[in-house]
Design a protein that fits this description.
By secondary structure, the protein is mainly α. The chain has ten helices and no strands. The N and C termini lie far apart (58 Å). 29% of the residues are buried.
């Protein structure tokens, strides 16, 4: 059953995304390999969980972004925005986990780890989870913002950094409004059994929110959302500055589209690049 579901997922990605979808699946495989081959063994060996999470997140971002979107300036901007936002997320997570007094001892999994022979800093494990959990949404946000600024520059011609930033940030506001809601609902869905348990016990909301299990999820959600929001102005500013340095819109279009058209089959106007060859009776332009 799970095998067929996996095949269906992979097929849907490739059918819609074509070569880019296939590259995205390769990136997903590399992401899982990083987690299983590097992240988990490093944590078991007692390495600092936050440092391990940041290195893992950077490696995953590098593979996922460049494989899915090509080795170009737009991908580099998205990667820089992702890493910068991850650094902010890590700082905020460290501060608020400390302030909230989260120890990482509240879950059953933490109890099993304590009973076993693995020496893992449980508070650091919470921090690592926050960083890794925020990564997926950050990749989506930074790539979308960089791509939007690239398209604006290619369509509108030469524009200043400020003009590109203002146009890009308007798109980013709409994206933030939907993505933050998605992030919150994802965490809420994962915590649904816990929420039902506290609802059945009829405890006051303040008591529930201050319990470590719920407080951990609240900190995870809010810190991840702040990092997500911060990625929009950061990535938009980097993209606006980089795109404004391009000497012509054609360079931007080539940078953005070459990964979708690896064989160069489409001309500068998409399928219109085949003009003169669709009608066999029409002479080709000289």
């Amino acid at each position: 059953m799970l095998l067929w579901l996996t095949v269906l997922f992979a097929a849907s990605v490739v059918v819609l995304g074509r070569w880019r979808g296939l590259a995205a699946l390769v990136g997903l495989g590399i992401s899982l390999a990083v987690l299983l081959v590097f992240t988990v063994p490093a944590l078991v060996d007692g390495s600092d969980p936050l440092a391990v999470a940041l290195v893992s997140a950077a490696a995953i971002s590098f593979a996922a972004i460049y494989l899915a979107h090509g080795f170009n300036s737009m991908s580099t901007v998205a990667l820089m925005g992702t890493i910068g936002s991850l650094a902010l997320t890590a700082v905020l997570a460290t501060v608020f986990v400390q302030l909230a007094g989260i120890t990482g001892l509240a879950s059953e999994q933490a109890t099993f780890l304590q009973l076993g022979s693995v020496e893992v800093g449980l508070q650091g494990l919470v921090l690592a989870g926050i960083v890794i959990g925020a990564l997926g949404a950050l990749d989506d946000m930074t790539v979308t913002q960089a791509s939007a600024v690239w398209e604006l520059r290619a369509a509108a011609g030469p524009r200043s950094v400020a003009q590109l930033y203002r146009s890009g940030i308007r798109i980013g506001r709409d994206h933030v409004a939907s993505t933050v809601n998605t992030l919150v609902l994802a965490y809420a869905g994962a915590s649904m059994p816990l929420l039902l348990f506290f609802s059945l016990t009829a405890q006051p909301l303040g008591v529930v929110a201050n319990g470590e299990l719920v407080a951990t999820e609240i900190v995870r959600t809010l810190v991840g959302s702040i990092g997500l929001v911060a990625s929009v102005p950061l990535t938009t500013a980097l993209a606006a500055w980089t795109a404004s340095q391009a000497t012509s819109p054609a360079m931007l279009v080539a940078t953005h589209d070459d990964h979708d058209d690896p064989e160069g089959l489409e001309g500068p106007e998409g399928h219109e690049g085949h003009e003169g060859h669709d009608d066999p009776d029409r002479p080709a332009p000289t």
